[in-house]
Amino acid sequence: MVVAGLMAALCGCSGPLSTLDPSGPSAASIALLWWVMLAGAGVLFALVLTLFLLVVLRPGWGSRLPSSRWIVLGGLALPAVILLPLICYGLLAGERLLPLPGHSPPRIEAVARQWVWTFRYPDRGNVATTNVLHLPAGTPVDIDVSSEDVIHAFWVPRLAGKIDAVPGQVNHLRIQADTPGRYEGQCNEFCGVGHARMHFVVIVDRPADYPAALAAAAATTKAEP
Amino acid sequence: MNGRAVPPRRLWLLAAGFLVWCSALVVLYALHAIGCAFGWQAGALRWSLAIVLFVHLIVIAWMWRHLATARPEPKLGQAAVFLQTVVVWTLIAALVATVITFAPSLVLKTCI
Description:
The complex is a heterodimer. Chain A is α+β, with helices and mostly antiparallel strands. Chain A folds into 2 domains: 2-97; 107-223, Sandwich (Immunoglobulin-like). Chain A contains 4 helices and 10 strands, in the order H-H-H-E-E-E-E-E-E-E-E-E-E-H. In chain A, the strands form 3 sheets. A 5-stranded mixed beta sheet of chain A has the order 3-2-1-5-8. Chain A has a 3-stranded mixed beta sheet with strand order 4-10-9, covered by helices on one side. A two-stranded antiparallel sheet of chain A has the order 6-7. In chain A, helix 2 runs antiparallel to helix 3 (67-97). Chain A is elongated and about 80 Å long. Chain B has one domain (16-107). Chain B has 4 helices and no strands. Chain B has helices at residues 13-37, 42-69, 77-102, 104-107. In chain B, helix 1 packs antiparallel against helix 2, helix 1 runs parallel beside helix 3 and helix 2 (42-69) packs antiparallel against helix 3 (77-102). Chain A binds chain B through residues 84, 87, 91, 94-95, 98-101, 172, and chain B through 100, 104, 108-109, 112. Chain B: The chain crosses the membrane at residues 12-32, 44-64, 76-100. Chain B: This is DUF4405 domain-containing protein.
Protein backbone atom coordinates (compact mmCIF):
# COMPACT_ATOMS: atom_id res chain seq x y z
CA MET A 1 0.00 0.00 0.00
CA VAL A 2 2.91 2.33 0.85
CA VAL A 3 4.53 1.47 -2.49
CA ALA A 4 1.25 2.12 -4.31
CA GLY A 5 0.92 5.45 -2.55
CA LEU A 6 4.50 6.43 -3.39
CA MET A 7 3.98 5.43 -7.02
CA ALA A 8 0.82 7.54 -7.21
CA ALA A 9 2.57 10.52 -5.62
CA LEU A 10 5.71 10.25 -7.75
CA CYS A 11 3.62 10.16 -10.95
CA GLY A 12 3.16 13.90 -10.43
CA CYS A 13 6.91 14.54 -10.62
CA SER A 14 7.02 14.33 -14.40
CA GLY A 15 4.73 14.31 -17.41
CA PRO A 16 3.30 16.99 -19.68
CA LEU A 17 1.30 18.74 -16.95
CA SER A 18 3.77 18.44 -14.07
CA THR A 19 4.72 21.65 -12.26
CA LEU A 20 7.64 19.73 -10.74
CA ASP A 21 9.28 19.27 -14.14
CA PRO A 22 9.81 22.94 -15.09
CA SER A 23 11.21 24.05 -18.42
CA GLY A 24 11.31 27.81 -17.99
CA PRO A 25 12.43 30.40 -15.42
CA SER A 26 8.92 31.19 -14.13
CA ALA A 27 7.99 27.54 -13.67
CA ALA A 28 11.41 26.84 -12.14
CA SER A 29 10.87 29.62 -9.60
CA ILE A 30 7.41 28.25 -8.73
CA ALA A 31 8.76 24.69 -8.46
CA LEU A 32 11.57 25.88 -6.18
CA LEU A 33 9.02 27.67 -3.99
CA TRP A 34 7.04 24.41 -3.81
CA TRP A 35 10.12 22.47 -2.72
CA VAL A 36 11.00 25.13 -0.13
CA MET A 37 7.44 24.97 1.23
CA LEU A 38 7.58 21.17 1.28
CA ALA A 39 10.83 21.34 3.24
CA GLY A 40 9.29 23.85 5.69
CA ALA A 41 6.20 21.67 6.11
CA GLY A 42 8.44 18.61 6.53
CA VAL A 43 10.44 20.26 9.32
CA LEU A 44 7.26 21.32 11.14
CA PHE A 45 5.71 17.87 10.71
CA ALA A 46 8.85 16.14 12.02
CA LEU A 47 9.02 18.43 15.05
CA VAL A 48 5.34 17.95 15.91
CA LEU A 49 5.60 14.17 15.45
CA THR A 50 8.72 14.04 17.63
CA LEU A 51 6.96 15.93 20.42
CA PHE A 52 3.93 13.68 20.03
CA LEU A 53 6.02 10.50 20.27
CA LEU A 54 7.93 11.84 23.28
CA VAL A 55 4.67 12.51 25.09
CA VAL A 56 3.27 9.08 24.20
CA LEU A 57 6.42 7.08 24.98
CA ARG A 58 7.46 9.00 28.09
CA PRO A 59 4.29 10.02 29.94
CA GLY A 60 4.83 13.23 31.87
CA TRP A 61 7.57 14.45 29.53
CA GLY A 62 7.41 18.21 29.16
CA SER A 63 5.06 18.70 32.07
CA ARG A 64 7.63 20.88 33.83
CA LEU A 65 7.03 23.61 31.25
CA PRO A 66 3.82 25.55 31.96
CA SER A 67 1.06 25.10 29.38
CA SER A 68 1.14 28.79 28.42
CA ARG A 69 4.78 28.43 27.39
CA TRP A 70 3.97 25.39 25.26
CA ILE A 71 1.25 27.40 23.54
CA VAL A 72 3.55 30.38 22.86
CA LEU A 73 6.55 28.29 21.78
CA GLY A 74 4.73 25.57 19.83
CA GLY A 75 1.73 27.52 18.61
CA LEU A 76 3.32 30.87 17.79
CA ALA A 77 7.14 30.88 17.81
CA LEU A 78 7.68 27.61 15.94
CA PRO A 79 5.24 28.30 13.05
CA ALA A 80 6.48 31.91 12.88
CA VAL A 81 10.11 30.84 12.46
CA ILE A 82 9.12 28.62 9.52
CA LEU A 83 6.24 30.59 7.98
CA LEU A 84 7.62 34.14 8.05
CA PRO A 85 10.70 33.29 5.93
CA LEU A 86 8.37 31.34 3.60
CA ILE A 87 6.13 34.40 3.21
CA CYS A 88 9.16 36.60 2.43
CA TYR A 89 10.48 34.09 -0.09
CA GLY A 90 7.03 33.76 -1.72
CA LEU A 91 6.63 37.52 -2.03
CA LEU A 92 10.08 37.98 -3.57
CA ALA A 93 9.54 35.08 -5.98
CA GLY A 94 6.17 36.55 -6.99
CA GLU A 95 7.72 39.96 -7.66
CA ARG A 96 10.32 38.42 -9.95
CA LEU A 97 7.59 36.73 -12.02
CA LEU A 98 5.70 39.93 -12.83
CA PRO A 99 5.61 41.05 -16.47
CA LEU A 100 6.98 44.47 -15.67
CA PRO A 101 6.88 47.19 -18.29
CA GLY A 102 10.25 48.44 -19.44
CA HIS A 103 11.50 45.80 -21.77
CA SER A 104 8.77 44.78 -24.17
CA PRO A 105 9.00 41.17 -25.31
CA PRO A 106 6.89 39.82 -28.19
CA ARG A 107 3.15 39.64 -27.45
CA ILE A 108 0.71 36.84 -28.13
CA GLU A 109 -3.03 37.14 -27.48
CA ALA A 110 -4.70 34.10 -25.92
CA VAL A 111 -8.47 34.31 -26.27
CA ALA A 112 -10.61 31.72 -24.52
CA ARG A 113 -14.16 30.74 -25.29
CA GLN A 114 -16.11 27.61 -24.43
CA TRP A 115 -14.08 25.39 -25.01
CA VAL A 116 -11.45 26.54 -27.44
CA TRP A 117 -8.26 28.59 -27.21
CA THR A 118 -7.41 30.98 -30.03
CA PHE A 119 -3.91 32.40 -30.16
CA ARG A 120 -3.18 35.55 -32.21
CA TYR A 121 0.29 36.84 -32.97
CA PRO A 122 0.18 40.66 -33.46
CA ASP A 123 3.95 40.78 -34.05
CA ARG A 124 3.63 38.19 -36.83
CA GLY A 125 0.99 39.69 -39.09
CA ASN A 126 -1.85 38.90 -36.66
CA VAL A 127 -2.00 35.28 -37.79
CA ALA A 128 -3.98 32.94 -35.54
CA THR A 129 -3.81 29.35 -34.39
CA THR A 130 -6.45 27.30 -32.59
CA ASN A 131 -5.58 25.13 -29.60
CA VAL A 132 -1.91 25.25 -30.61
CA LEU A 133 0.43 27.90 -29.21
CA HIS A 134 3.78 28.43 -30.90
CA LEU A 135 6.60 29.98 -28.89
CA PRO A 136 10.23 30.70 -29.72
CA ALA A 137 12.69 28.96 -27.39
CA GLY A 138 14.75 30.99 -24.95
CA THR A 139 12.78 34.21 -25.44
CA PRO A 140 10.36 35.78 -22.96
CA VAL A 141 6.89 36.31 -24.42
CA ASP A 142 4.00 38.27 -22.92
CA ILE A 143 0.69 36.42 -23.19
CA ASP A 144 -2.35 38.76 -23.16
CA VAL A 145 -5.11 36.53 -21.81
CA SER A 146 -8.81 37.33 -22.22
CA SER A 147 -12.14 35.57 -22.61
CA GLU A 148 -15.17 35.94 -24.88
CA ASP A 149 -17.71 34.29 -22.59
CA VAL A 150 -17.09 32.95 -19.07
CA ILE A 151 -14.02 32.92 -16.82
CA HIS A 152 -11.33 30.50 -17.94
CA ALA A 153 -7.68 30.22 -16.90
CA PHE A 154 -4.56 29.88 -19.02
CA TRP A 155 -2.06 27.42 -17.61
CA VAL A 156 1.03 25.72 -19.03
CA PRO A 157 2.35 24.00 -15.89
CA ARG A 158 5.86 23.31 -17.17
CA LEU A 159 6.40 26.92 -18.28
CA ALA A 160 4.64 29.31 -15.87
CA GLY A 161 1.90 29.83 -13.32
CA LYS A 162 -1.73 30.17 -14.29
CA ILE A 163 -3.65 33.35 -14.95
CA ASP A 164 -7.39 33.93 -15.26
CA ALA A 165 -9.04 34.73 -18.58
CA VAL A 166 -11.77 37.20 -17.59
CA PRO A 167 -14.38 38.63 -20.00
CA GLY A 168 -13.82 42.35 -20.57
CA GLN A 169 -10.32 42.35 -19.15
CA VAL A 170 -6.85 41.53 -20.42
CA ASN A 171 -4.45 39.86 -18.00
CA HIS A 172 -0.75 39.57 -18.72
CA LEU A 173 1.52 36.61 -18.15
CA ARG A 174 5.22 36.54 -19.03
CA ILE A 175 6.26 33.10 -20.18
CA GLN A 176 9.51 31.60 -21.40
CA ALA A 177 10.42 28.13 -22.57
CA ASP A 178 14.07 27.20 -22.28
CA THR A 179 14.19 24.29 -24.70
CA PRO A 180 12.35 23.43 -27.93
CA GLY A 181 9.75 20.70 -27.64
CA ARG A 182 6.10 19.93 -27.14
CA TYR A 183 4.33 21.03 -23.97
CA GLU A 184 0.72 21.00 -22.89
CA GLY A 185 -1.63 23.56 -21.42
CA GLN A 186 -4.99 23.32 -19.75
CA CYS A 187 -7.88 25.56 -18.82
CA ASN A 188 -7.59 25.73 -15.06
CA GLU A 189 -10.88 27.35 -14.08
CA PHE A 190 -14.09 25.35 -14.32
CA CYS A 191 -15.91 26.81 -17.31
CA GLY A 192 -18.72 24.41 -18.15
CA VAL A 193 -19.29 20.84 -19.26
CA GLY A 194 -16.39 20.95 -21.73
CA HIS A 195 -13.85 22.24 -19.21
CA ALA A 196 -11.92 18.99 -18.85
CA ARG A 197 -11.35 18.81 -22.62
CA MET A 198 -10.27 22.45 -22.96
CA HIS A 199 -6.59 21.80 -23.32
CA PHE A 200 -4.05 23.03 -25.84
CA VAL A 201 -0.63 22.15 -27.14
CA VAL A 202 2.40 24.43 -26.82
CA ILE A 203 5.06 23.89 -29.45
CA VAL A 204 8.36 25.56 -28.71
CA ASP A 205 10.46 26.06 -31.81
CA ARG A 206 14.07 26.98 -32.21
CA PRO A 207 14.19 30.75 -32.89
CA ALA A 208 15.39 30.16 -36.47
CA ASP A 209 12.49 27.79 -37.19
CA TYR A 210 9.82 29.80 -35.37
CA PRO A 211 8.52 32.02 -38.24
CA ALA A 212 8.13 29.11 -40.64
CA ALA A 213 6.55 26.82 -38.04
CA LEU A 214 4.08 29.51 -37.03
CA ALA A 215 3.18 30.30 -40.63
CA ALA A 216 2.55 26.61 -41.31
CA ALA A 217 0.40 26.25 -38.19
CA ALA A 218 -1.58 29.39 -39.05
CA ALA A 219 -2.20 28.12 -42.58
CA THR A 220 -3.50 24.84 -41.17
CA THR A 221 -5.84 26.70 -38.81
CA LYS A 222 -7.11 28.87 -41.69
CA ALA A 223 -7.79 25.81 -43.83
CA GLU A 224 -9.94 24.26 -41.13
CA PRO A 225 -13.67 25.11 -41.28
CA MET B 1 -21.12 27.85 38.91
CA ASN B 2 -20.30 31.27 40.31
CA GLY B 3 -21.89 34.54 39.20
CA ARG B 4 -24.54 35.16 36.56
CA ALA B 5 -24.25 33.93 32.97
CA VAL B 6 -22.44 36.20 30.53
CA PRO B 7 -25.00 37.76 28.13
CA PRO B 8 -24.79 35.88 24.78
CA ARG B 9 -24.44 39.11 22.80
CA ARG B 10 -21.03 39.65 24.38
CA LEU B 11 -19.74 36.61 22.52
CA TRP B 12 -19.66 38.83 19.45
CA LEU B 13 -16.58 40.42 20.96
CA LEU B 14 -14.71 37.21 20.11
CA ALA B 15 -15.12 38.07 16.43
CA ALA B 16 -14.50 41.80 16.77
CA GLY B 17 -10.77 41.81 15.95
CA PHE B 18 -11.08 39.64 12.91
CA LEU B 19 -14.15 41.54 11.68
CA VAL B 20 -11.85 44.57 11.48
CA TRP B 21 -9.32 42.35 9.68
CA CYS B 22 -12.09 41.43 7.20
CA SER B 23 -12.88 45.10 6.70
CA ALA B 24 -9.20 45.83 6.02
CA LEU B 25 -9.09 43.00 3.45
CA VAL B 26 -12.16 44.23 1.56
CA VAL B 27 -11.27 47.93 1.60
CA LEU B 28 -7.59 47.44 0.71
CA TYR B 29 -8.48 44.96 -2.08
CA ALA B 30 -11.10 47.31 -3.52
CA LEU B 31 -8.90 50.40 -3.23
CA HIS B 32 -5.98 48.61 -4.87
CA ALA B 33 -8.16 47.40 -7.76
CA ILE B 34 -9.81 50.82 -8.25
CA GLY B 35 -6.46 52.63 -8.12
CA CYS B 36 -4.91 50.35 -10.72
CA ALA B 37 -8.00 50.43 -12.96
CA PHE B 38 -8.05 54.24 -12.98
CA GLY B 39 -4.29 54.57 -13.38
CA TRP B 40 -3.50 56.38 -10.13
CA GLN B 41 0.10 57.33 -9.48
CA ALA B 42 1.97 54.57 -7.64
CA GLY B 43 2.91 56.93 -4.80
CA ALA B 44 -0.67 58.17 -4.27
CA LEU B 45 -2.04 54.64 -4.35
CA ARG B 46 0.60 53.43 -1.91
CA TRP B 47 -0.16 56.26 0.51
CA SER B 48 -3.91 55.57 0.26
CA LEU B 49 -3.32 51.91 1.08
CA ALA B 50 -1.04 52.87 3.97
CA ILE B 51 -3.63 55.24 5.46
CA VAL B 52 -6.41 52.63 5.22
CA LEU B 53 -4.18 50.01 6.83
CA PHE B 54 -3.12 52.42 9.56
CA VAL B 55 -6.75 53.31 10.37
CA HIS B 56 -7.63 49.62 10.76
CA LEU B 57 -4.60 49.04 12.99
CA ILE B 58 -5.63 52.00 15.14
CA VAL B 59 -9.14 50.58 15.50
CA ILE B 60 -7.85 47.17 16.62
CA ALA B 61 -5.28 48.76 18.95
CA TRP B 62 -7.98 50.97 20.48
CA MET B 63 -10.24 47.92 21.06
CA TRP B 64 -7.31 46.07 22.61
CA ARG B 65 -6.50 48.94 24.98
CA HIS B 66 -10.16 49.51 25.85
CA LEU B 67 -10.90 45.85 26.62
CA ALA B 68 -7.58 45.10 28.31
CA THR B 69 -8.11 47.90 30.84
CA ALA B 70 -11.85 47.31 31.38
CA ARG B 71 -12.79 45.55 34.59
CA PRO B 72 -15.17 42.61 34.18
CA GLU B 73 -18.41 43.00 36.09
CA PRO B 74 -17.96 41.16 39.39
CA LYS B 75 -21.52 39.78 39.27
CA LEU B 76 -20.66 37.82 36.07
CA GLY B 77 -17.90 35.87 37.82
CA GLN B 78 -15.08 33.82 36.28
CA ALA B 79 -16.80 33.40 32.90
CA ALA B 80 -16.52 37.13 32.23
CA VAL B 81 -12.84 37.14 33.18
CA PHE B 82 -12.19 34.20 30.87
CA LEU B 83 -14.14 35.82 28.03
CA GLN B 84 -12.19 39.05 28.42
CA THR B 85 -8.85 37.21 28.34
CA VAL B 86 -9.81 35.35 25.17
CA VAL B 87 -11.13 38.50 23.49
CA VAL B 88 -7.93 40.40 24.29
CA TRP B 89 -5.84 37.58 22.77
CA THR B 90 -8.02 37.48 19.63
CA LEU B 91 -7.43 41.23 19.28
CA ILE B 92 -3.66 40.74 19.58
CA ALA B 93 -3.83 37.95 17.01
CA ALA B 94 -5.92 40.15 14.69
CA LEU B 95 -3.42 43.00 15.04
CA VAL B 96 -0.46 40.77 14.17
CA ALA B 97 -2.40 39.10 11.33
CA THR B 98 -3.35 42.49 9.89
CA VAL B 99 0.27 43.60 9.81
CA ILE B 100 1.59 40.33 8.34
CA THR B 101 -1.18 39.98 5.77
CA PHE B 102 -1.48 43.52 4.48
CA ALA B 103 1.77 45.38 5.15
CA PRO B 104 3.60 43.67 2.23
CA SER B 105 1.12 45.28 -0.19
CA LEU B 106 2.69 48.63 0.71
CA VAL B 107 6.17 47.67 -0.48
CA LEU B 108 5.39 45.38 -3.43
CA LYS B 109 4.66 46.59 -6.98
CA THR B 110 1.30 48.32 -7.02
CA CYS B 111 0.12 47.95 -10.62
CA ILE B 112 1.60 46.42 -13.77
